[in-house]
């Protein structure tokens, strides 16, 4: 865990403890009221803005766009703005003297965000899906998309935010990604998968493999926007070029409605531990070369 993530999650946990929050879903309206923060919804937010913090005299508040169509989107718009209010130095940097409104330009599917938006998103993740309450859900649910759906339902968040949180909590080799038109926008990996060096390759702007369930949904926007699901299996090396060539990966993909994007969950249950894989590579490298190896690809006739 990076220092940035540690601070953001620690700040959210401190708020949870201060307000004695002991159950999910977390009541964001109650937090706004207890912190004496104003709340507004506006139809005048620019297309790229879903939320903002503002100042009205000596009082602060949160604005969200009326274009937050789903409950999960609304909640993960409000929670990062609460993050800005509680995280050190955020309000001073966002609302210096003379500035009354600070829109958040992160967007829910943008792959590049500034440090303040990243910290606010991490705060929101911990606030909406506290580890001590979310981890039991992950452990008691079937691996992959069922666990993500269970987490999203219990915490009343979007599937995409629940998927990222799931990747951080599961003890399985899991990768989750968001794509549009078959092109990957961002990805998260579980700690077990991240231990493998090849799994750290940059997935952004890569194409989903041909024949994958993700590509099938990407090619049928009507199904993706209807929230259809698909599943399949491929070799792990079709997703990660340097992955072991004989390991299968199970794929679950689901459309994310009007956003036109596809959420994909990859699970490789037979993936060996990273240490075991390194040991196997070292043994293979130590074997003396056989002069006949160079000829084996060729056959007469």
Structural notes for this entry:
The longest helix is centred in the first third of the chain and has 16 residues, at 3-18. By secondary structure, this protein is α+β, with helices and mostly antiparallel strands. Strands 6-5-9-8-7 form a five-stranded antiparallel β-sheet. Strands 1-3-2-4 form a four-stranded mixed β-sheet, covered by helices on one side. It has helices at 3-18, 28-34, 71-86, 90-94, 115-128, 131-140, 145-155, 159-169, 191-194, 213-218, 221-225, 274-286; strands at residues 38-42, 51-56, 59-65, 101-104, 174-180, 183-189, 229-235, 248-255, 261-267. It contains twelve helices and nine strands. Mean pLDDT is 89; it is low at 294-301.
Kindly summarize this structure in a few lines.
The protein has 301 residues and is of the alpha+beta class. The protein has helices spanning 3-18, 28-34, 71-86, 90-94, 115-128, 131-140, 145-155, 159-169, 191-194, 213-218, 221-225, 274-286; strands spanning 38-42, 51-56, 59-65, 101-104, 174-180, 183-189, 229-235, 248-255, 261-267. The chain has a five-stranded antiparallel β-sheet. Strands 1-3-2-4 form a four-stranded mixed β-sheet, covered by helices on one side.
């Amino acid at each position: 865990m990076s220092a940035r993530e540690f601070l953001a999650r620690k700040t959210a946990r401190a708020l949870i403890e201060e307000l004695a929050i002991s159950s999910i879903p977390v009541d964001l309206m109650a937090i706004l009221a207890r912190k004496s923060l104003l709340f507004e919804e506006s139809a005048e937010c620019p297309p790229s803005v879903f939320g903002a913090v503002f100042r009205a005299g000596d009082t602060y508040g949160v604005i969200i766009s009326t274009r937050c169509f789903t409950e999960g989107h609304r909640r993960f718009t409000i929670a990062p703005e609460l993050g800005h209010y509680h995280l050190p130095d955020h309000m001073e940097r966002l609302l210096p003297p003379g500035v009354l409104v600070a829109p958040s330009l992160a967007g829910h599917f943008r792959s590049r965000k500034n440090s303040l938006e990243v910290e606010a998103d991490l705060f929101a993740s911990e606030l909406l899906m506290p580890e001590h309450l979310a981890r039991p859900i992950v452990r008691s649910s079937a691996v992959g998309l069922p666990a993500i759906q269970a987490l999203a339902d219990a915490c009343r968040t979007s599937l995409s935010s629940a998927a990222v949180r799931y990747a951080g909590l599961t003890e399985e080799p899991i990768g989750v990604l968001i794509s549009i038109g078959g092109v990957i926008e961002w990805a998260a990996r579980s700690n077990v998968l991240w231990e493998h060096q090849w799994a750290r390759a940059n997935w952004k702007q890569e194409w989903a493999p041909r024949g994958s369930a993700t590509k099938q949904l990407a090619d049928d926007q009507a199904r993706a926007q209807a929230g259809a699901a698909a599943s399949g299996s491929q070799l792990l090396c079709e997703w990660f070029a340097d992955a072991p060539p004989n390991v299968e990966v199970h794929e679950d993909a689901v459309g994310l409605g009007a956003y036109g994007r596809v959420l994909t969950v990859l699970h490789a249950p037979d993936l060996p531990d990273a240490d075991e894989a390194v040991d196997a590579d070292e043994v293979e490298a130590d074997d003396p070369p056989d002069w006949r190896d160079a000829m084996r690809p060729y056959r007469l006739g």
